[in-house]
Specification:
Layout lengths: L2 E7 L3 H16 L2 E4 L7 E6 L4 H20 L3 E6 H6 L2 H5 L5 E3 L7 H11 L3 E3 L18 E5 L1 E2 L10 H5 L3 E2 L2 H13 L4 E5 L16 H9 L5 E5 L8 H9 L6 E3 L7 H7 L5 H14 L4 E8 L6 H14 L4 E5 L17 H24 L5 E9 L5 E5 L4 E5 L7 E9 L4 E5 L8
Parallel strand pairs: 1-2, 1-3, 3-4, 4-5, 5-6, 7-10, 10-11, 12-13, 13-14, 17-19
Antiparallel strand pairs: 8-9, 15-16, 15-18, 16-17, 18-19
The structure holds S-adenosylmethionine and iron/sulfur cluster.
The site of S-adenosylmethionine has 18 residues, from strand 13.
Length: about 425
């Protein structure tokens, strides 16, 4: 009988992609990948540690496996950043967990599962090395292929657990990246998304690899229709990178550049390595080079000691920068980090209020920005279907577009924008309307 594995993922795109690699490793070992927990012999929870809430979500899901275990034999593995940081303590905390895995060495996961299944032992393996032979990912999307270019992070921003959960930054050899991109192109993927915690520091640990701008140009010339990348760090953003983006038509006009705060004191405490002025200068330079550039960002509200005035500095940065979208989060103290030693002194209600004020300002800006597109034509890569039978996809600058008209997932179609909301544009496919020959 075929062995079946179910994988559930929390967290960022890096985690989502690592689950694709886990699925690849399990498939290579003869497992079928199933999409329902109650049909699986092996359940893998790939968890996030970036905020407390992500941890709580994972712990909240353990009950569903406990329920299954009462009725039949199921093996549960918990891992990713969550497994890496907590290690064997997870086994002590929950009897439902059979094994713990970390953020490296996914190719050896099936062997660990077999050991646990055969011997009935419980194990925590979080000291694995990077894979020599990387698993071939089982991709969830048939349109956009995620390709890792760097693992880990060496920045140690004061609030962030990623360097502890994922280790120091390691650049992947360019030949491996280009081979994976080429395979994706040959398989019909229209887009590649280059992934790393800090993609624009690519190559700093291995000078023979060249910098990010060189890699970006090489990827853009593989024949892929679109190249995206995330995340970039303001401190490492160079003119050469902006030039590479601007001169390669296949590179999308989207820059995700986390600012985190608009207050110079808070940025200093966070150890981000730039000021508010420098951040605004960078996006100004980038927009001068690419008039149609969409800049998006991450912001933390309620960092320890953030005063009302410092929060207002963040609001005014958001007003000035006119982001296309903002991922905003309330500060959450994380174990091992430097900021966790400071009192988490912005009260929860105040953090919530700041978050809501920020989102309100951003919704207004996004709506104003999106309205500028009404009546214009944008190229949309169709990614999926909406519940009411329409389709959705992304414009070249990463804006979400709801598309009416007959279009197929994976098509790159011209769309005339007819309406705008804060979260998306709405338009009609010009191909299905017969307006484009
Ligand atoms: N490397 C990216 C960068 O620096 O731009 C960010 C990657 S991090 C996993 C994603 C986002 O999570 C961060 O940009 C930050 O806004 C948020 N984040 C990280 N630690 C956090 C914490 N302790 N509390 C709240 N948000 C946090
Ligand atoms: Fe975390 Fe900072 Fe690294 Fe981003 S750059 S992953 S915020 S330590």
């Amino acid at each position: 009988m075929a062995k079946r594995v179910y994988i559930e993922t929390w967290g960022c795109q890096m985690n989502l992609h690592q689950s694709e690699e886990l699925a690849g490793a399990m498939r290579a070992a003869g497992y079928d990948i199933v999409d329902a927990l109650d049909r699986a012999d092996v359940v893998l929870f790939n968890g996030c540690m970036v905020r407390q809430k992500a941890e709580e979500k994972l712990l909240g899901r353990l009950g569903a496996v406990v329920e299954q275990k009462r009725r039949r034999s199921v093996i549960l593995g918990v891992g990713g950043c969550f497994g890496q940081v907590h290690g064997a303590a997870i086994l002590a905390r929950s009897a439902a967990v059979d094994f713990v895995f970390g953020t490296r060495g996914h190719a050896s996961l099936p062997a660990l599962v077999e050991r646990v299944a055969r011997g009935g032992e419980r194990a925590a393996v979080v000291d694995a090395a990077d894979d020599e032979k990387e698993p071939v990912p089982v991709r969830r999307s048939s349109v956009s292929a995620m390709v890792t270019i760097t693992e880990g992070c060496s920045n140690f921003c004061s609030y962030c657990i990623v360097p502890y959960a994922r280790g120091p930054m390691r650049s992947r050899p360019p030949e491996r990246i280009l081979a994976e991109v080429q395979t994706a192109v040959d398989e019909g993927y229209r887009e590649v998304l280059l992934l790393g915690q800090n993609v624009n520091s690519y190559g700093r640990d291995q000078s023979s690899y060249g910098g990010f701008e060189k890699l970006l140009r090489r990827v853009a010339r593989t024949g892929v229709d679109r190249v995206r990348f995330t995340s970039s760090h303001p401190r490492d953003l160079t003119d050469a990178m902006i030039e590479a983006m601007a001169s390669e038509p296949r590179v999308c006009r989207h820059l995700h550049l986390a600012c985190q705060s608009g207050s110079n004191r808070v940025l200093g405490e966070m150890r981000r390595g730039y000021t508010r002025e420098r951040y605004l200068e960078i996006i100004d330079t980038a927009r001068k080079a690419m008039a149609d550039l969409n800049v998006t960002t991450d912001i933390i509200v309620g960092y320890p000691g953030e005063s009302k005035e410092e929060f207002r500095d963040t609001l005014s940065l958001v007003e000035q920068a006119r982001f296309g979208s903002v991922y905003a989060a309330k500060y959450s103290p994380r174990p091992l980090t430097r900021a966790a030693a400071s009192a988490d002194d912005v009260p929860p209600a105040e953090k919530e209020e700041r978050l809501q004020r920020l989102l309100q300002v951003q919704r207004r800006i996004a709506l104003e920005e999106n309205r500028r597109f009404v009546g214009r034509d944008v190229m949309v890569l169709i990614e999926g279907r909406t519940r009411d039978g329409g389709s959705y996809g992304r414009a070249e600058d990463h804006r979400t577009v709801v598309v009416h008209g007959t279009v197929e997932v994976g098509e790159l179609v011209p769309v005339r924008v007819a309406g705008a909301a804060a979260a998306a544009l709405v338009g009609v496919s010009l191909v299905s309307e017969g307006a484009v020959s």
